[in-house]
Amino acid sequence: MSEKVTGGELVIRTLEALGAERVVGLPGQHALPMFDALGDSSLDYLGARVENNAAFMADGHARVTGTVTPLLLSAGPGALTALPGLQEAATASSPVLLISAQVPTPGIGGQAHGYLHELRDQESHFRGIAKGTWSIRSVDQIVPTLVDAWRTAQSAPAGPVYVEVPHDVQQASVELADGQLGGLAAEAYALAPEATGAQLDAVARLLAESSTPRIYAGGGVVRSGAGELLEQLAEQLQAPVVTTYGGRSAFPWAHPLSAEGWIEDIATTEFLEAADVLLVVGTGLSELSSNYFRLAPTGTVIHIDADARVLGANHEGTITLRSDAGLALQGVLDRLRASELGERANARPAIDELLATVRGRLDAQPLATERQLMDTLRSAIPDEVATFWDMTISAYWAWSAWDARGGVYENGQCGGLGFGLPAAIGASFASRSRETPNGAPVVAISGDGGGLYGVAELSTLAQSQLSVTWLVVDDGGYGVLRGYMNEAYGRATATELTGPDYLAVARAFGIESRAVELDTLADQLAASIRTPGPRVLVLPATLELFEATHTDRPAVHR
Fold first, then answer.
1. Is the peptide bond before 157 cis (omega within 30 degrees of 0)?
2. Is the pTM of this model over 0.70?
3. Which of 112, 376, 462, 527 is the most buried (most CB within 10 A)?
């Protein structure tokens, strides 16, 4: 038996067969056949108001689920508006599958037929961001192309991919046989990269013979679910662990071997540099995670990452292993358990000295408000509640100061504004079900400047009634840039903003909102988290960054 379906229906049915349960999107003229098919599907749909926010939502969903998240958008300006959100997903290795509509096939390739939304080469705009791009030209290509795209998105290192489907292909008909889409989920399964046995043997020997091993763990450990393996390896080696801002939930700060994650303090940089063997796993040692390229290890560096492009990119003489973090940690751990370890000193005194240096430096600065805010947020937000941080001063603090306590801690990693609220909406959406129609509680933290990028999604929140608490820290401008400019030029230009009354805007959408002060924030935040549905809290506060400690050193990278 078979039935005739359109290309748009085939797209949606293929997503169902691949295992998708939810989809994020925003319709447009050339995407209507796909959206019509969506209405007859089993997929739960979350509609955004701005395409870039839709990309952030898909990113947030993908981060908390670890699964490929489909994103349906229209052609031309619809697709292109999502580019900054896809760049964020790429930076965080987040598997977003963007399926964009296209103009009819005669308008593709720069022939200038003049279709509405026609671009000379829409696909080319995504090649510098997406792991892979595909332009479908016939209905027969839909299934195999989506399988390839799905596999590419989920394979380590995960990341966003782009598929475009022309409007006439979505409208075309094809015979679909019973069972034709069976087994697609298995076909799309991708194995993670794994180091060779010889490589793992060599790394295990170096670590076994080391006297002061130290571990620097990043987001790759989190993405591979390898936190327990990291703990076991650290305990086997008695090696201190520092976590990056992306790997904050990879290792518990309460563990006696945790050296926390004050990655912007030069004392932490020096602590890592002092290792005779430094194991770097699941981080690319980028500008931020290397303290603005100041990290200059003096011992042997072992760099493990699934992304071959970052291996040894900033440090010469590095021993590199392309591997999923979990597979590599397991392989090294198995070998260490069968070997004799060299003698090493108790690591805790060095950790205590490091943390005392960091805290002493903070104590010497007038930062009581900032530290109180971090402490208040940490005490009010339960461990199991995910937090999503926009690019704002409080997020800069969280990069170093936030103890994730094993919970989901996600932040904007590529420097663009607007991530916090829509990503939190996507994360809450990930757990929406008949039993939990409001989704899981999630907290988003934004500044008033970054908040303007996502304010349209209050409409999405009002419609979906997802349990997102949005905290806006309002200082009347771009606080981070204000601080940078005052320090560099003695004045700030173009940083002051006339913002909306966020409380009134939220109420206009029917969302409860409250003004809070530092002394009332904890109670209001805790109450909001306990109450299903959305809420907006606004904290008027001017925050400062802690003093930079890296500027006396030259940058060191290849």
1. yes
2. yes
3. 376
